[in-house]
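Section 3.1: Structural characterization of target chains.
Under the original work plan, the team committed to producing a structural model for every single-chain target entering the pipeline before any wet-lab resources were allocated. The record below documents one such target. The sequence was received from the expression subgroup and is listed exactly as submitted; it comprises 128 residues.
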Amino acid sequence: MAISLPMYVQSQEFEVTLGTSEATTASQILTKAGAGCAGVLVRGVVGLLDSAGGKVTINIYDSATVADAVQQYSVQLDHTTLTTTSAMQDPGIPILENPHITLTGDATANTKDYVCMVYLQKIAITGR
């Protein structure tokens, strides 16, 4: 019987100043080494807002042009009382193309600095 262990991808952090309108072009999610991340499961996200107050919407797409892309993951992190919060997804959402991300704040989070990291797991094929 085959045994498979999860392998996680160490992705780059996104550091942005939030706006209230979603960007028309999403940023590609890369590994720490700068490579693409196709063939992964999105397992969740963690975000750090520079001061408590506001909500942040995180969207992940299958390509950079938001208008033409398929939205594959969306979550709103509530930073009303906490500067750091996260959301986990089980089971993970498979992303076969290189994933792209947008970060959008509500009126309270607008203009605040934000750091986000996506939890990614490699899709594994097991054999015997």
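The mean pLDDT is 93.
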